Amino acid sequence: MDEKHYKINEIFYSIQGEGYNAGRAAVFVRFSGCNLQCFFCDTRHQEGTPMTAAEICHEISRYPAQLVVLTGGEPALFTDQPLCDAIHALGRQIAMETNGTCPITVPIDHITCSPKFEFCLNAPLRISRCDELKVVYTRYNDMARYDNIQAQSYFLQPCNVGDEEQNELIVQATLDYVLHHPKWRLSLQLHKILNVP
Ligand code: SF4
Question: Would you tell me which CATH number, out of the four given (3.40.50.720, 3.40.50.1110, 3.40.50.740, 3.20.20.70), belongs to the domain 6-193?
Fold first, then answer.
């Protein structure tokens, strides 16, 4: 039987720039392909290299960090038990960044859910738990829609809309929201501020 291949956009080593693990060195495994189409998406979904689990793990093992971040694209569409087993066999911890629209039945150590139901039609949540809820804040989010989502920690991250003036307003609104609702913590995209991958 042919060995399974995963379509990988890129594997790279950097600092996690966002959310709970911000500041930690991590190996990022970026899958190609997503079931949604957000206007601010920066993934090149068409591009990708077919790789086996062994090839992915070979790349991961070139780097010393314990944390492996599965991202995309939508990694929950593609991550399966054999890939998780292979990464865990390296002694690494698996984090996943998901839009939450696909059930997750594989063993992920840290799930970050960033719902997109405000940006895309037909993007209802289909996961029952997450470790970290990360909301991309535009100033117009209906925050009541996030109140019933259970998580260990809650992050609000200003949306980069590509317009300096609008971005400043969004950052200020994000700060205001956190100051008035301290359950939420500010998340910044450190990798973009520092201009690292
Ligand atoms: S859910 Fe994420 S990967 Fe998918 S289109 Fe939206 S921003 Fe891009």
Answer: 3.20.20.70
